[in-house]
Design goal:
alpha+beta; 31% helix; two-stranded antiparallel ribbon
Length: 415
């Protein structure tokens, strides 16, 4: 074998070994091996069955990991009532805003490489944002403080979604639909630039299309389409094999139906869904589908301080910015048409700063997480080395599952 062939052989061998390392599954152990009670976790099953009986959802999957080891991974109910299909652990879900943490991770990977600084103005990279105005006393006026990249990650940008309230800004969002799946990144930027901000950047916390704008910036900084960048830098290295902006034909049999809680009225048939076709606009704020396994892998990387199976994605310093509150006290607590007492926000995750009886009574200080519009949810508690993912498809969003099982899971921790 000549030298060139030997080098090629060694290179291929190393690539194969690297791929195997990335594809390692999180180990599954008995609860006691990770310091948890099996009878305690059995109560989670009971609670999920009770929620099923109340028609809070049609089907669900719950995964719990502690110390990086899976102690509970179970499915409940039906993924598709119309076709009589039971829920499976590898079911594919519309994760909506759980997309945000992945896109923010990608953006911060680029920040670590020097593509930008967190306090750079957005208009430096998106010129259409140079002449933004904000609503003040019912009129659009020129902003004095520029919107920054940090504002996008914290949702203090002044951007909005339009589904809360009925003022002139909300009506513009509803009319223009800047993040429509059949749109484009170019159309999104043009539409957003024409809508006044809800407020001067940094003055309030307001859940918004900020992460969609961040997705466009990822394209500008990386020189790649958002979906290509995520696939190359995050999804493939983490072996998130079922996470994408669409469901390919060979996976439709695992795609869940989306329902209205209570009535279980079908909202989106998995065999006729828009997710079966490529999106014109790949929404960084809510466009991905994923599985419980895939998302658990992503979260375990975050819980590990930015590393999984020997592959580092972010520095521990950056992960701390993501997972600790970065909001000043005057902008807390956050809320989306509600008041989430004791909750702040990091760069991509909500953060429980102080446990509250008024909001999420079982929550613990230091916990961070978020959810998606179809009632998918996750949280991590660093001190307890705990990662939890709950998946279902019920719109509008409901906290029922999180609040029903969170206390049970914490109570199952023995040591």
């Amino acid at each position: 074998m000549n030298l060139t062939l030997r080098i090629a052989f060694v290179h291929a061998w190393l690539l194969a070994l690297t791929s195997l390392a990335y594809a390692r599954e999180l180990p599954t152990v008995k609860p006691a091996e990770a310091g948890m009670s099996a009878p305690g976790l059995a109560k989670v099953d009971q609670a999920m069955e009770e929620l099923l009986g109340k028609k809070k959802f049609s089907g669900a999957v719950v995964a719990i990991a502690r110390h990086g080891k899976v102690v509970h991974f179970k499915s409940y109910g039906m993924m598709d009532r119309e076709r009589g299909k039971p829920m499976t652990e590898d079911a594919i879900f519309r994760i909506y805003s759980m997309t945000k943490a992945i896109v923010t991770t990608g953006a911060l990977m680029l920040e670590e490489r020097g593509a930008y600084s967190l306090d750079d103005p957005v208009e430096k990279f998106i010129p259409a944002f140079r002449d933004l105005k904000a609503m003040k006393n019912g009129k659009p006026v020129a902003i004095r403080r520029k919107m920054t990249i940090r504002d996008l990650m914290l949702h203090t940008s002044g951007l909005s979604y339009g589904f809360v309230g009925d003022g002139p800004v909300a009506r513009k969002y509803k009319d223009l639909k800047p993040t429509s799946r059949d749109g484009s990144m170019k159309k999104m930027v043009e539409k957003l630039a024409s809508i006044p901000l809800a407020f001067e950047p940094s003055r309030k916390w307001n859940y918004s299309v900020s992460t969609d704008v961040l997705g466009r910036l990822v394209e500008i900084w990386s020189g790649q389409k958002l979906e290509a960048f995520l696939e190359e830098k995050i999804l493939k290295p983490l072996d998130m094999r079922d996470t994408s902006f669409m469901v390919p034909g060979d996976k439709v049999n695992r795609f869940t139906a989306n329902y209205a809680p209570g009535t279980l009225k079908l909202l989106d048939d998995p065999r006729q869904s828009k997710y079966l076709k490529p999106a014109g606009f790949s929404s960084g704020g809510g466009g991905l589908v994923s599985t419980t396994r895939d998302y658990l892998r992503f979260l375990q990387m975050i819980a590990n301080g930015g590393e999984l199976h020997g592959r580092r994605f972010l520095t521990e310093k950056t992960v701390r910015l993501m997972t600790t509150n970065q909001l000043p006290r005057k902008l807390m607590p956050i809320g989306i048409g509600d008041v989430r007492t004791g909750v702040g926000f990091g760069l991509g995750f909500s953060v429980c700063v102080k446990a509250s009886e008024n909001w999420d009574p079982a929550g613990k200080a230091g916990e961070f997480g978020w959810g998606g519009a179809a009632s998918t949810h996750y949280w991590i508690h660093p001190e307890d080395k705990l990662v939890v993912v709950t998946m279902e498809q019920a719109m509008p969003y409901s906290f029922s599952t999180e609040w029903a099982i969170k206390g049970l899971i914490y109570d199952a921790i023995e040591k």
